[in-house]
Amino acid sequence: MTDLDLGALLDDRSTGVIVCTGAGGVGKTTTAAALALHAAERGRRVVVLTIDPARRLAQALGLTELDNTPRPVVGVDTAAGGSLDAMMLDMKRTFDEVVLTHADPETAQQILDNSIYQAVSSSFAGTQEYMAMERLGQLRTEAVAEGSWDLIVVDTPPSRSALDFLDAPQRLGSFLDGRFIRLLTAPARAGGKLGMRAVGVGMSIAGATLGKLLGQQFLLDLSTFVAAMDTVFGGFRARADETYRLLQDPGTRFVVVAAPERDALREAGFFVHRLERDRMPLAGLVLNRVAVSRARISADRARDAAEALEESGDRHTAAVLRVHADQAETAARHRRLIRDVAAANPRLATVQVPLAGADIADLPALRAVAEALTTP
C-alpha cells in the first residue's frame, strides 16, 4: 500500500468533486465533513452534500438542521479566504424543482398533481440516487456559473446502495421506457380522440384485465404521468449522463471509507472493484477508527498481571490492566486485517485515522479528524 495524501488532494485546485463512499457505520459522514472543513479552512469554497437521511452531519457541523438549500457553517476559520456550506438531499423537493424548471407551467402542474408522480418522487426504488445525481449536477452548474464553490464534497448513503446512483439513470429510464409501461400508456401516447377511442374500444384483453386488477383510474393516472414526463424526461437523462461523465472526470475523486473490521473491509473491497470497473477516479481508502496501543506490555501479560492483582486485592489497577488488554488485543486484530488488505491491494493508497476517545460532535473534534486524514 502507498500513503493517501488527502491534504495535497484538497489543496489541488483541479479537484472539484470528492465523493465519500462506504458501508454504514464506518464514519463516512464524519470523514466527508472533516475533509470539507479542512479544505474550507485552507482557502477552498466548499459545499458538502449528504445523501444519508441520518442527521449526523448537521450535528457535527453545529447546525440545528439541514435541508435542500446550502447553508453556511458558522465557526469556520475563513482567514485563508475559504467558506463552507452544508446541505442534505431532499429527494421530493429536488424532483419537484426539476419538473418546474424543465416543463411549461401547465404540464408541470399536471405532473405534480398526478398520483403516480407523487408515489415515484417519494418512494420509488432508485429515485433517491437519481435525484442525488440531479442535485450534484445542479451544484456543479451553480459552481461554474456563479463561482459559488470550487469544491463539492458528497457523502453517500450507507451500504452498497452508496453506489446505486451510478445505475440510477438507467434504472429510472428503464422503468419509464419499459415494455410494460409502454403497453399500458400507448393510448395516452397516441393522443387526442384516437387515444381515447383506443382506451374505450381497442384495449387488449391483457389491458382490460389489468384495469380490473389495478383500477381504470390507476391506468389513466399512469398514462397521464408518462405522457407528461415525456416532455421532460429526455432532459433528465441528458443531465444524468452529463453528471455521470463528471464523476469520471479527473477532477473528481472517490474516497472509500472503511473500519478495520472484516465485514466493513469486505464491503470496501466491493466499492474499490466497482469503481475500478466503471473507470471512476479512485483516490484511495480511509481506514477509520483504527485502534492503536502504544504500551509495551502485551495483552496476555496484562491479563496475567490483572489476575495477580485481583488476588492481592488491588482491583482498581487490575481493571485498568484488563482495559489495556482489550485495547491491545483490538489493536493487534486491526493490524492483522490491515496487513491482509495491503497484501490483497498493494497499489491501493490508504490513510489511517486513529480511534477517537469520544463522539465527533463539533468543529474542534472534526478538525482533529481532518488532521489525521490529511497527515499521511
From TrEMBL:
Residues 17-290 form the ArsA/GET3 Anion-transporting ATPase-like domain. InterPro entries: ArsA/GET3_ATPase-like (IPR025723), ATPase_ArsA/GET3 (IPR016300), P-loop_NTPase (IPR027417). It comes from the Bacteria. This is AAA family ATPase.
